[in-house]
Amino acid sequence: MNPLKHVAIIMDGNGRWGKKYKNSRNAGHKAGLNTVEKIIRETIKNRISFLTLFAFSTENWKRPKKEINYLFNLLENFLVDKIEDLHKQNIKLKILGSKRFSPKLNNLLNNSEKKTSKNTKLQINLALNYGSKLELIEAFKKMNRKKTTISEKNLSLNLQTKNIPDPDLLIRTGDTKRLSNFLLWQIAYSEIFFEKKLWPAFNEKDYNRIIREYKNIKRNFGKI
User: Fold this and answer.
1) pLDDT in tens, 15-35
2) CA dist list (Å): 91 to 7, 78, 111, 174
3) Residue 7 parent element (H or E)
4) Any idea which residues carry the catalytic annotation?
5) Which string of DSSP letters, residue by residue, matches 142-190?
6) What structural domains does the chain harbor?
7) Residue-wise pLDDT tens digits, 164-218
8) Which residues are CB-neighbours of 25 under 8 A, at least 6 positions away?
């Protein structure tokens, strides 16, 4: 069976679920947080060390301002209400992306990272204002400033995910089959599962089914 250290998830479908069932995209975003908590619990049960969640992309700024503000308010409230609980569970939080938010949210993110920095049971990487193309450009700029030799190893060491193993498994919910500028370098050999369910409807059974399927895949990494 394949070892599983790192799962990455594109949590797609909140807005569509909200419009369909609650006549409100924002209601879908709120419901999606319940799924996040379920998946965190199952990740711990499965003894997976890293969970990366794509929460807000560099392209998501094109959405209506009211929806963006609601999303960030949800995140602020989640951090205020849940960070102590995450800390008690020995969970580490790391932010991927550029912290170009309100002073309040930036402080909450920085304090949450600092508070949980030594935790070891599970590391949650929350991708906020994240885009893989920008991450790669910034990595090359760093290498140029440091006059570092260009190689796969050195590029990986200059990404935001340095010291984090590449995802073994990528899940995208929402019945959309694209990568949306997410971890493009890191998922070169990830097994990818596109799930039809919208994120708020995704549950523990769905997650564990995908994990079981992943563990039984024959992974060759270019070999026969």
Assistant:
1) 999 999 999 999 999 999 999
2) 15, 15, 14, 27
3) strand 6-10
4) 12, 60
5) HHHHTTPPP-HHHHHHTSTTTTSPPPSEEEE-SS----TTSSTTTTTT-
6) 6-130+167-215 (3.40.1180.10)
7) 999 999 999 999 999 999 999 999 999 999 999 999 999 999 999 999 999 999 8
8) 14, 15, 16, 18, 19, 67
